[in-house]
Amino acid sequence: MPGKMDTLAQSGLPFMKMHGAGNDFVVIDSRGRGAVVTAGLARALGDRNRGVGFDQLAEITSAPDADFGLVFWNSDGSQAGACGNATRCVSDYVMQGLGADRVSLVTARGGLKAERLADGRVAVNMGQPQLDWAAIPLAREVDHLHLPLPGDPVAVGMGNPHCVRFVPDAEAVDLAAVGPGHEHDPLFPERTNVEFAALIGPDHLRMRVWERGTGITLACGSGACAVAVAAHLRGLTGPHVVLEADGGRLEVDWRDDRVWLTGPVARVFDGVLTPDYIAAHR
After folding, report:
1. DSSP for 91-160, written as a single string
2. Identical fold at 4-125+265-280 and 154-256?
3. In the chain, what are the helix, strand and coil shares in percent, each to the nearest 5?
4. Quick one: CA dihedral 107, 244, 178, 150, positive or negative?
5. In whole angstroms, what is the distance from residue 251 CA to residue 242 CA?
6. Is 77 helix (H, G, I), strand (E, B) or coil?
7. What is the pLDDT of residue 222?
8. Which CATH superfamily is domain 4-125+265-280 in?
9. What percent of the chain lies above the pLDDT cut of 70?
10. How far apart are CA 65 and CA 111, in angstroms?
11. Which residue has the higher pLDDT, 107 or 257?
12. Given 83, 89, 163, 225, which residue is catalytic?
């Protein structure tokens, strides 16, 4: 009997292209056929010249105790534990299929909930921030609010590690020059996402992102959550903030020890990966 990849190599594999505030994703619905994405396929699809291109690949899976599950892949073929904007985009897609305004889902972060607001934006409960050094994780016990790194950054876990640096002017940061050094610093054993944020008004932040395993992205949902948590803990903002990313506006509300992320979603196009392409990148 042929395996699932053999079947896909004969029939092709449908996918969607989506984005949330410019943070773009390939979405593959694997429900009913088992997980089909491999590290090799993720790397190939992530190539913006020879594949489709994405900041993350989101694979929808079946979940026995929720409406669906999600697995996230970076463009280098590694997996990510969380992706807030992809979660919002896929939640909107699933809600449309169910004819519902609320869904439950499971990720490596655990059980989450999402809902569609009256204005069409989608909000997702990203759970509690991880503030213990071992849970973030960091390589050793240090003050996560004042890391011993250039720029006095803050470490926050949102299902994946984040290094948040507050700067006078986010526009002036050379992300490609500074981001990789933080991403690969030995203090972060699983590498880290890096956010540079500047306070531009009361409870209003400008943020830019260097994403682990991907590079510069126009936005990052879990990163926006990390920035909001770090800013509140540093006394820069209240618990509800507006963040201006390169690709658009996001809102974060830290309430009852949970962090809600809200923003726009867009389904750009649908396509089918050809049998030849799948066969070449098993």
Report:
1. HHHHHHHHT-SEEEEEETTEEEEEEE-TTS-EEEE--PPB-STTTTT-SS---TTS-SSTT--EEEESSS
2. yes
3. 20, 40, 40
4. negative
5. 5
6. coil
7. 96
8. Diaminopimelate Epimerase; Chain A, domain 1 (3.10.310.10)
9. 96
10. 9
11. 107
12. 83
pLDDT digits (tens, 9 = 90+) for 3-18: 555 556 568 999 999 9
pLDDT at 4: 56
Mean pLDDT, rounded, of the chain: 95
Q: Residue type for 82, please?
A: A
Q: Provide the CB-side half-sphere exposure for 103 (13 A, CA).
A: 25
Q: Where are the domains of the chain?
A: 4-125+265-280, 154-256
Question: Which residues, 6 or more positions from 145, have their beta carbon under 8 angstroms from its beta carbon?
Answer: 154, 230, 233, 234
Q: CB under 8 Å to 162, separation ≥6 — which residues?
A: 155, 156, 192, 193, 194, 195, 222, 223, 226, 227, 230
Q: Which two tokens stand for residue 235?
A: 């006394």
**DSSP-assigned beta bridge partners for residue 58:** 27, 72
Which one from 89, 163, 220, 225 is the annotated catalytic residue? Answer: 220
The phi-psi region of residue 167 (left if phi > 0; otherwise alpha if psi is between -120 and 50; otherwise beta) is beta
User: Could you tell me the CATH superfamily of domain 154-256?
Assistant: Diaminopimelate Epimerase; Chain A, domain 1 (3.10.310.10)
Instruction: Based on the residue annotation, tell me whether 83 is a catalytic residue of this protein.
Output: yes
Bridge partners, 112 (sequence order): 105
The letter for the amino acid at 121 is: R
The pLDDT tens digits for 60-113 are: 999 999 999 999 999 999 999 899 999 999 999 999 999 999 999 999 988 999
Provide the whole-model pTM.
Answer: 0.92
